[in-house]
Amino acid sequence: MISVLLADDHALVRTGFKLMLDAQPDLSVVGEAADGEQAVELSRRLRPDVVLMDLHMPGMDGVRATELITTELPGVRVLALSTFDLDENVVAALRAGADGFLPKDVSPEELIEGVRVVHRGESAVAPRLLTRLIGTFVRTSPPRTAPAELSGLTDREREILVLIARGRSNAEIAAGLAVSPSTVKNHVTSLFAKLGVRDRAQAVIIAYEAALVHPGE
């Protein structure tokens, strides 16, 4: 059973999500938070598998709450939600450790699958949407120094990082490089460890900020 914490300042939204998720045999809503502070407090107490985190809440917002949760509770996954597709807070949440992003108007099926995906340790952001979001907002952010960990990547790992940043799935990377999907998965695991990132979302942000890829490529 996947335990889920709902964080949204609108009670009706929480009620709708709860009804939707509790109807699934493998999902259970274990708590509800009306702001970021409550989300952090309940995450510490309940240790949910996944937090559905609205980014726009009064007081402590979802970005700060995400940062605290992912730093203190690495076993808790955060799926960020926003009313807007192109929202600078989405990239901020991904930088803070969110495992994915979905717009609030997604279908029930997409939301349910998103919870399952982040629980598996994968990113619940569609690759093309991810690169569009990051390409838009990393481009307008102040330049950052490339992390020293990039120098520790092998040539193949760097190549795969670039392909991830261009929205390629593991299967697509494997086909393009003429290697097995398991080989790509091993390379991805290794480069994530070297970069100190949790998922593809954070890896893509590093690739853009290090100018390994550029918006529009």
From TrEMBL:
Keywords: DNA-binding, Phosphoprotein, Transcription, Transcription regulation
CDD domains: LuxR_C_like, REC_NarL-like
Domain of life: Bacteria
MF term (GO), any: DNA binding
Gene Ontology biological process: phosphorelay signal transduction system; regulation of DNA-templated transcription
The UniProt record lists the keyword Ubl conjugation: no
Domain Response regulatory stretches: 3-119
Signal peptide location: none
Alphabetical list of PROSITE patterns matching this protein: HTH_LUXR_1, HTH_LUXR_2, RESPONSE_REGULATORY
Record PTM 4-aspartylphosphate, positions in chain: 54
HTH luxR-type domain residues: 146-211
InterPro entries in alphabetical order: CheY-like_superfamily (IPR011006), NreC/VraR/RcsB-like_REC (IPR058245), Sig_transdc_resp-reg_C-effctor (IPR016032), Sig_transdc_resp-reg_receiver (IPR001789), Tscrpt_reg_LuxR_C (IPR000792), WalR-like (IPR039420)
SMART domains the record matches: HTH_LUXR, REC
Keyword Phosphoprotein: yes
PANTHER family found in the cross-reference section: TRANSCRIPTIONAL REGULATORY PROTEIN NARL-RELATED, TWO-COMPONENT RESPONSE REGULATOR
Name under which the protein is recorded: DNA-binding NarL/FixJ family response regulator
